[in-house]
Fold this sequence. Notes:
A: elongated
Amino acid sequence: GAYEAAMFHLFTHAFFKALLFLGAGSVIHAMHHEQDMRKMGGLKEKIPLTYWMMVIGTVAITGVGVPLVYFGGTPLGFAGFLSKDMIVETAFAAHTGAGMYAFWMLIIGAVMTSFYSWRLIFLTFHGQTRADHHTFDHAHESPNVMLIPLVVLAIGSFAAGMVFYPEFVGKIEEEWWAGSIASIQTVMHDGHGISILEAAHHVPYWVKVSPFVAMLLGLGIAVSSYMRSPVWMRVGFGVLAGLFLIFASVPWYIAVPIGVAMAMLFLAIPYGSHKDLAERHQVLHQFLLNKWYFDEIYDFLFVRPVMWVGRFFWKRGDGNTIDGFLNGLAMGLVPWMTRRAGRLQSGFLFHYAFVMLIGVSLIITWFAIGGGH
Amino acid sequence: MGDISLLSLITFLPLVGAGFMVAILRGDDEAAQLNAKRFTLLITTATFALSLFLLTGFDPENPDFQFVEGGTWLGGLTYRLGVDGISLPFVMLTTFFFPLCIGASWGVTSRVKEYMAMFLLLETMILGVFVSLDMILFYLFFEGGLIPMFLIIGIWGGAQRVYAAFKFFLYTLLGSLLMLVAMIYMYIEVGTTCIAACGDAGISLMTHAFASETMTLLGMDIAGGVQTLLWLAFFASFAVKMPMWPVHTWLPDAHVQAPTAGSVVLAAILLKLGGYGFLRFSLPMFPVASEILLDFVLILSVVAIIYTSLIALMQEDIKKLIAYSSVAHMGFVTMGIFAANQQGVDGAMFQMVSHGFISGALFLCVGVVYDRMHTREIAAYGGLATRMPIYATIMMLFTMANVGLPGTSGFVGEFLTMVGVYQVSTWAAFGAALGVILSAAYALWLYRRVVFGDLIKESLKTIKDMDRREIAVITPLIFFTLLLGVYPSLATDFFGPTVDALLENVQTAQAAFTQLAAAAN
């Protein structure tokens, strides 16, 4: 229940997610409403400001910062680094089964976030363009009315985490929240209970570095697959990961193999390997491409049955049953009876006289049988 | 001000205006048509202006009838008019709406004089229903209003207007005939047809307690006795008017075939006659029967809400969709009324007023595009936002209000009603909430298909946005929808005391009956 950390992440997330979305809008505008990344590429020189704003957003969302360094109690890094790491640390600090599950899921998620975010940058802005020549030639930077908000958000994506860290989850969080959020989770530490935010500060160093390593892993894979990257870059990311692990007091016989393994992985992934992967695993690729077919399932399970019921009520319920009954009465039964009764008005006097005679005889019979009163 | 019979003046001014216009105005050329329209606009605006005196002179804190006037008329029948916190909002709604309807009818070209005369006659009839304090007078106006409506639909309506007009007329009349029988019985039993504020006589229908012991009729045990039978008879009439499921099928046809202003009047005001009837007769005069038959009403209401919302989802005609949505909203009203608690009845009253504004506005919106394209098919539209941004905005507001978005009056009515109903039945409140979800589905889908998307149809490429007249007619509705949405106590403070007094009597009677029943067992 680290609600303060969650609110902090919501807050920073607003900056970089808005930046990424608006940046995407700027790209789409430049590419004249083309949204498919498979038809982009090479836009870095064409729309440089948008490019750098998107990079800032990506750096913020993947959580780039300086691990284990604190400046007056506040870590150093882009907005996402501060809030994400706080959540990762509190998940670990909870020391519950659910907490550990969350921790590892978060790390895996961080790898994937880093991978897809950098993939977006490389596919859109780097390399040779795959767009059609006409669109690519006409690609131009968006007007200021679209670019200025990007700059504003980029400033936020850079600074919002560091500036507001003390208020949300740092030194002055207790007075700032002033009890408006229920911070009920306590963790045992050194024999007494402390708040989960406090506990987060006491997690092992490797936990604090883990999101950063995860980010490097994702970045490395993306760099290898989607960019014609030099060998030193690929090896470099692996080495960087290893170094930070050592800095985090992870023993060398664990840190070095991890670093080396990462470097080797990056070297092993050839440029453009994603296309082969997609071809070799068609079913999985389609499944993921079509969003796990959620929309189709919902349509089948919910939308179509509800619409069927609506149509049924309309045509069979209101139409056949209610209106059918009433129309059958008003336009069927009643006119039928009227026509029948109309036959009594034959126009022949002797018919009328005969009916009167029948009526009189019935009345006499009635009174004769019933007796007097 | 006290000497002038204000209510009679307000009620009959439209009729007098109609008579004057029919007698004096000659010719059917454009000048005469314009004169007819202007004159009617003048009369309806004057009626509204007079009703403002009612508004300012009314004391909301006083739960009794005010502005009472009248006396004996024919034997035991009285001519008595008066308003209380329940009827005055409807009187104001009526006088407020008619000038807007006339404004919306500016495009009528055939038989304009007669059309305007019909509307004026209709206004008198409707106002008469809301102000009459005599039962037979109520019936007279209630049924009388059918005639101009029948003619409006049947003469100036759409392709199937004759079928729709007859359906509307016969359907409503049939239900009301049972009510007449009940009224005759009540007159015989009580000795007066006066509803309330009967002056020296002292006895009134409101204060009379109809027998509620179980009785046997034709071999059947009827719980609640005479009250139940009377309640059912009145129910037959008001349920059709409301309309309630399953006697609602006249509404889609009537709404679709009626001219725009006719639909507006039908949705905004005529539907409220049913709810008003429940509040004026069923609940106060037959409180025990109302309690016994609560589950019956709840079932019908929930079915109405969900069933008609599902149908609305599948409609291809815009007006029919909104018509079915009206039935669903009225389901909330009936639930609220018979929950017979403060939130329920206040919610039902609010919902009726709010629905008047919202569905009136929605039908006006449909009228805007119908006037241009002469079709109500959803498939004929799409992408209107590109060329009609003002229309798109206004339509969005009222679509959201229809769904019950907080900030609009639609939310207050639905929410209050649900709170009230929840206290008497959780499953009914659950069903009502389900209806809210469905209303979001059909309303937003309609809006998306008509207004959003790409404008690709050739026929729509030259469509014009709303002109000043159309905007002027709909602006007051925008104002009130938003005002009541953010400041609902303007309304609830107004009818609150009257509703409280009503419920006090109802709950006393219901409690007494429960005690008696418990003691008997």
